[in-house]
UniProtKB/TrEMBL annotation, chains A, B:
Region (Disordered): 748-770
Family matches, as SUPFAM superfamilies: P-loop containing nucleoside triphosphate hydrolases, PLP-dependent transferases
GO terms of molecular function: adenosylmethionine-8-amino-7-oxononanoate transaminase activity; ATP binding; dethiobiotin synthase activity; magnesium ion binding; pyridoxal phosphate binding
Classification via CDD domains: DTBS
Keywords: Aminotransferase, Pyridoxal phosphate, Transferase
Gene Ontology annotations for the cellular component aspect, listed alphabetically: mitochondrion
Key word Transferase present: yes
Name of the protein this chain belongs to: Dethiobiotin synthase
Pfam families in UniProt: AAA_26 (PF13500), Aminotran_3 (PF00202)
GO biological process: biotin biosynthetic process
Length: 879, 879
């Protein structure tokens, strides 16, 4: 919560009984002298013990006329979590959300009424439990008010004061000042002053309060004198000046960040030649950014005369509008978020790794977090082929490693030398992939994608491969439409319809489709390899969903067929082995090389699954490759080496399991970069020899940095817990509501050839559709089926779909009124930033051309999804 | 400290007066029942207050016959930091190092004597200051003993107990158990038990101790009863069992890590076909790993029958040898270390960023840590050309970005299209660089280096450039020898000698050399560009020192000349602009394109400085490009935009300042990956247009992750503080001892042509050399000149040098006795792991072929360098 004019501070204590209320009283008296009538609010959100002893009563007594409020008052003098239980009064707010909402409401009202100051006093120590049992520093964290820590002036108080600071600091609080009584016996003030000055925090000593007198009147009189003297002292006056100045600095810094960024930052993927609104993110919590959006700041229109300096004339501004808006992070911060922003457990885990190791060398060395992560990832993926882990820093480098692995394996098997160029004259070996793929921004993996607007201007980009156009899916007017590409449909796009997601994944029922795909793949490969002499070294796929290429839902049957065709027909790829001449004659006998007795060995081509975006539960399952498995595939007899006993519902059959897979993004719960490339033993053995130069010569400085590994271990443990303990059952049920009846009768609608995919004249109606997926298949979305179905009928959309946490909307070209598809999606994106829901929250989303997408973290609640759904529909309905 | 048989625990209190001594007494009684006579040690390292009230006295009273020790006893009942000051008794250890050394000694003696258990009891709370003023959790951190936290059972104790845990946890401690009294009034135990179970930590309740009796005898009796009952209770017995089990698990995990790693990890840059000793790093602190080295473990020879399981029969092992050896991290963990491992300030900074943000989206957004870092880096570098910051994840991706920037700029200026290939048929534009360069492991930047054993097996590596062989320097027998490459020396290597580093950097006195270099560069470029039709798009340099390519000390005058020749003669590069035909005719008139009125604009070629390894004080200066500046260069009139007022001694002239520079490694103090690519406004403007596809389409998911940015801000602030506050003056003085006399008389020795660089017959003797560098030039090393000079005379070395924190030794081919140079350096490397100094520390170093190098962090002390120097000399002297 932040306003230009209302300055609110939260008072925390290093321990109970350190003088929070005494200091709060002094501050309130001092502030009241500066405030207009009703300009100061004292708020004690939670109080325990008899009313007569309550802190707000004390404040009212010694700060006459103060506006004082308490939200949750419990009668027993216990910790609030016990007092709340014993009181059992349901009229008193006890949930974290309700207390925070009450505080927001009271502060907003105070701001509206022209309030300039507020003091919020907590109860007990910084980590004393609130009524729900959450520790206070977590309970109040969404507000992230600037904080005053009342230090402990007694023996031992140095330790408790610094520890309390550390607990606040690791939760992302800004500590404005430490205040404690100057007890000369223990001298804590001097030590703490020096300690906190290193953190740029001032530490202030107040005189010890008077000893308690037996005579109540005398006691009251000396206390009143003490308060008067203290609150009028230079020390306190200077403190208030300092606090005000910190407030103004924060506001000034926040509001000037967008223009300061313009001067110095070269943003990723941004055309700086086009003006763009830059959002300043003050902090984040859970799924929300606390963001300053210059476009919604009335101050900016006032100070429009100096738009580039960003320095706004603070005094003249309307004070009542909050500067920060919570924005749901609907791109999951570029697809990384797993356990929420500012998660204190993750922060503490990161700190532990930093404190135990920092970073330590990983060449010829090992440490516990990296070793644990290696075993944990393998047991999470349940891929029967994989047993080796290579560490790097991000999805792009992880894919570079995968490419180096795969190309070496195939070049070695097929006897290709990098200095023999194939017929395109550029490179001895290239990639087989899909149109619309994207594998990262480094040049090597850019070369794994087909030419597109994303790479055409990169001077060293050379498309090294062939990319098949895949059949893709969209939900339109309640039906799943499968569009076949021109190259497969022979004259005009052909559209098939399915009445459920389950029908799409019912591969056994789709044998005709599989046969058609197989024929197309074989014909294509024959043409490329035998007729054109192309050499392929790897099959690279983003299983099920191609992300950066435009959020394309690929028919899983097509990817499955591609893998099985190549594995079953290695001669389609490797026919040139041992053929020393360049005649391109097929040497069928060399297929024998493939006939390895090791069923884990790769065949045809090493299959690389780029699961950077799609894996680790982004689509609802640990491994997105598992979507290509059929329930009738033979499951592996050997599970991979694993320390954790686990039986995950969606298994990967050996037949379609990739030989190499790459994982990043969600791997570290959305905290920091780390990537893992996993490989089969057969791939690993390709690099074994007695010569160092045959090794995989790749290794970034921070390879397997402990902080990333330890956070990833924590993230995987949390993900697996949620996958198995029912956390997501509500989402799953939305997609399987009537599955008990329909489950055994999954049928495919008849194939209907339609002249154009965009024709929507074929009327299939009656939403909402009933799903046909059993929970066991784990094919579901965090976005309820009825909502997605409703969207599929929306006139502003050209189709949509949802998989796991991802919701994708294809915005109709003419719906923006401008004719430009990207403008239509962008205007929806802009609108969602300012269309606030009933809790005052907007949505921060990303667009890709005519696609706008929304993504939750793995901890987003059904209630949050419902609020998002309402807002999205409301924005779509506006015209 | 870790032994197989001796189990030592450290007892911390959540606050003072929570019952540490009572619990310690109970534990000691329980342990003594299991231990042999003298098998248990109670150690109170620091105690304050009268002897009669001392904790060790209490223990001796209630645990009869116990072996009890106190290291530092102060008489006043105050916090140790005050008590130590007031006592002023110099015979009592007060420094952190002396207390830790005493503990190590006592525990080692205890282990030698067959001790099985030890309890160390701290004083006050976890962050109460020790005698030196350091907080205890920092003071004892190098030991990293498993910890028991005594919780606070009073009101407010939930908060202080959890905060105390968090303070220990972020310092990398392992907490084995929380123990507190079961005070039913406040019920802290139940809450804490639930809280800590989430961290896998057991929380134990003990009965409240008896109330104090007035009669001392009665008091003693009831207390004795209490101790007896407690120590024999099932609760405590189970606790001891648990603690022992945790100990054995830790030992078992540690010793089996190397073999477990063999089964699953694919190590970077490792040939897994060659057996190699894998070191298990338990933790790290300051400059040291705490490492388990299987080669030095006697248990492994006993259990040699099952080398692959790694499970060693613990019971049968010699118990007295410590399992962990402190190893100086002399590769600075692949050149990353800046402020020491396990630095609690850095850990807390990382935690704050994680708690405030996690990671937040950076596309079209900005946050404070990223914005601050952008300004801080620019003001640290003091490069007058740079004003834009692009974020990525590591040196390799940072260089990929730099290459994309530079190539676009030159292709745009010279009108080159990526689809026009130059005469080598591969690529329209290539790199001009130096032989021996290395810029990272992703394929794009691998293509920026010349063919070598490091990249020849990478199937997609295509060397796209020309690499000049640079003159390089080595200190041999007290003289700096400059070796000219064959391509410049015309028939036989020519060697020049300099009597000081200062003479090398006295560019004004080396005008003849500069002229010779200039002629060579011009001739080469003319041949490449005009005669062969090559197109160059960037000049890429690692200023002064080429790292991964073999630690080559490049003549700075050569790099300086290369930059100035290209900038002054753009027609050497860009003559083909506007020539639509392929005739290769020089079109001299197009030089006019270069004549920009903007002096910051690039000329000839964008100059890219790869400072990933060499920058940010690795070589003693903020920017390694500054080594190429001359003191007589005109300094820029405009300093870059900066928030910090600073006047750094080594400035970068506009004439040689790079147009793009890349920074990583030390950037985050050695904690986690982050890279910054900085660029000039002219480079930035190349990408401006109204089309999104012209933008720099690069951006990793965790771009500008706040945790990296905030840690980097902290690191830069610390580095700049040390650079200016005299921290490194001792090092600087070693290189300028007699500079006041010699400074103005820097002379160059006469050029002597010697038939072979390896000939060492020319006798120049009389070490130690006196340096001739004034501190102001900041050309110095952390390794003292006299030590480096001594090394230069060593018969096992073929030369050496030191720059900043880096010491490089070229090991003579025949000194290893095997004839293989790499074996000679590797055997020295192996020896240093087990050759322990007087504090029991070894050295963990890295080799590159016949080069072995040693690197300090930026906080390594002169005393540590001296210990390292002694060990290195001792190892060299062994034969």
């Amino acid at each position: 919560m932040l306003w230009r004019d209302l300055k609110a501070w939260q008072v925390y204590g290093a321990n109970t009984d350190v003088g929070k209320t005494i200091v709060s009283t002094i501050l309130c008296r001092a502030l009241q002298r500066r405030a207009s009538p009703n300009g100061l609010l004292y708020l004690k959100p939670v109080s325990t013990g008899p009313q007569a002893e309550a802190d707000d009563r004390h404040i009212r007594q010694y700060v006459p006329g103060i506006n004082s409020k308490c939200i949750s008052q419990f009668s027993r003098p216990l910790s609030p979590h016990l007092a709340a239980k014993l009181d059992g009064d349901s009229s008193i707010p006890t949930s974290d959300a309700s207390i925070v909402a009450q505080i927001k409401k009271l502060l907003s009202q105070h701001s509206q009424a022209g309030g300039r100051y507020a003091i919020l006093e907590t109860a007990g120590g910084v980590l004393s439990p609130g009524p729900s049992g959450s520790v206070q520093a977590d309970l109040y964290r969404p507000l992230r008010l600037p904080t005053l820590l009342i230090g402990d002036s007694k023996l031992g108080g140095i330790s408790t004061t610094i520890s309390a600071f550390e607990s606040l600091h690791l939760r992302g609080y800004d500590l404005d000042s430490v205040i404690l009584f100057d007890d000369p016996e223990w001298g804590n003030h001097g030590y703490l002053q020096e300690h906190f000055s290193k953190h740029g925090i001032s530490t202030l000593a107040l005189p010890m309060p008077p000893a308690r007198r037996d005579d109540p009147n005398e006691d009251e009189a000396v206390l009143a004198d003490y308060y008067r003297e203290c609150s009028e002292s230079t020390t306190v006056t200077n403190l208030i000046d300092l606090l005000q100045q910190k407030h103004f600095s924060r506001v000034s810094k926040l509001t000037s960040m967008p223009s300061q960024a313009e001067a110095v930052i070269w943003h990723p993927f941004r055309q700086h030649g086009i003006p763009h609104n830059i959002i300043a993110i003050d902090s984040a919590y859970g799924d929300y950014f606390q963001a300053y959006n210059p476009e919604s700041d009335p101050a900016l229109s006032i100070s429009a005369s100096s738009p580039t300096t960003g320095l706004t004339p603070l005094a003249a501004l309307p004070p009542t509008k909050p500067l920060l808006t919570p924005l749901f992070d609907a791109s999951a911060s570029w697809w990384t978020q797993g356990l929420g922003h500012g998660n204190p457990e993750i922060a503490l885990t990161a700190a532990h790794a930093a404190g135990r190791y920092g970073h330590v060398m990983f060449a010829h060395a090992v440490h516990e977090p990296a070793l644990d992560l290696s075993y944990n990832l393998l047991s999470t993926l349940q891929n029967p082929r994989l047993n080796r882990i290579f560490f790097s820093d991000n999805g792009s480098t992880g894919m570079e490693v995968a490419v180096k692995m795969a190309l070496r394996a195939s070049c070695q098997r097929y006897g290709w030398n990098k200095n023999d160029h194939d017929n395109d004259g550029h490179t001895p070996v290239s990639i087989l992939g899909l149109k619309g793929s994207y594998h990262g921004d480094t040049i090597g993996v850019m070369n794994c994608s087909e030419p597109s607007v994303f790479n055409e201007k990169v001077d060293w980009h050379q498309p090294w491969g062939h990319w098949l156009e895949p059949p893709s899916l969209l939900l339109r007017k309640g039906m799943w439409e499968l569009s076949l590409p021109d190259e497969m449909a022979r004259g005009g796009g052909t559209v098939q319809k399915f009445d459920s997601l389950g029908a799409i994944f019912d591969f056994d029922a789709r044998r005709d489709d599989a046969a058609r795909y197989e024929e197309h793949i074989k014909t294509t490969l024959d043409s490329l390899v035998r007729q054109q002499g192309r050499r392929f070294g790897a099959l690279i796929l983003e299983p099920l969903l191609m992300g950066a290429g435009g959020m394309i839902f690929v028919d899983p049957l097509f990817q499955r067929t591609l893998i099985t065709v190549i594995r079953s027909n290695p001669e389609l790829i490797g026919s040139r082995v041992n053929s020393a001449n360049e005649s391109g004659v097929v040497d069928g006998s060399t297929g024998g090389i493939e006939a390895s007795t090791n069923s884990q060995d790769w065949s045809g081509l090493p299959v690389v699954a780029d699961e950077v975006f799609t894996g680790l539960y982004r689509l609802g399952r640990a491994s997105s490759s598992s979507f290509l498995s059929s329930s009738t595939d033979t499951l592996p007899s050997h599970q991979p080496q694993s320390q954790v006993q686990s039986s995950l519902p969606a298994s990967l059959s050996t037949a379609i399991a990739p030989d190499i897979s790459v994982h990043a993004k969600l791997l570290t719960a959305g905290l920091l970069p780390l990537a893992l490339t996993t490989a089969s033993e057969a791939i690993f053995q390709t690099f074994l020899s007695s010569s160092k130069t045959d090794a995989l010569l790749h290794g970034h400085s921070y390879t397997a940095h402990p902080i990333g590994c330890m956070v990833a271990n924590k993230a995987l443990a949390e993900y697996r817990r949620m996958d198995t303990d029912g956390t997501w059952d509500g989402f799953k049920q939305s997609w399987s509501a009537s599955s008990s009846a329909a489950n055994t009768t999954t049928t495919r609608s008849s194939i209907s050839a339609i002249s154009s995919p965009s024709s929507e004249s074929s009327s299939t109606s009656s939403p909402p559709l009933s799903g046909t997926i059993s929970p066991a298949t784990n094919t579901y979305s965090f976005w309820p089926l009825h909502f997605v179905t409703t969207l599929s009928h929306h006139p502003r959309l050209d189709g949509c779909f949802a998989l796991g946490t991802v919701l994708v909307l294809k915005v109709a070209a003419d719906s923006g009124g401008s004719g430009y598809t990207s403008t239509a999606s962008s205007s929806l994106q802009s609108r969602l930033l300012t269309l606030l829901d009933n809790e005052g929250c907007g949505i921060h989303s990303r667009v890709l051309g005519d696609i706008i997408y929304f993504m939750t973290s793995l901890t987003t609640s059904p209630e949050q999804v419902e609020r998002l759904s309402k807002t999205i529909l409301q924005a779509l309905d506006e015209r």
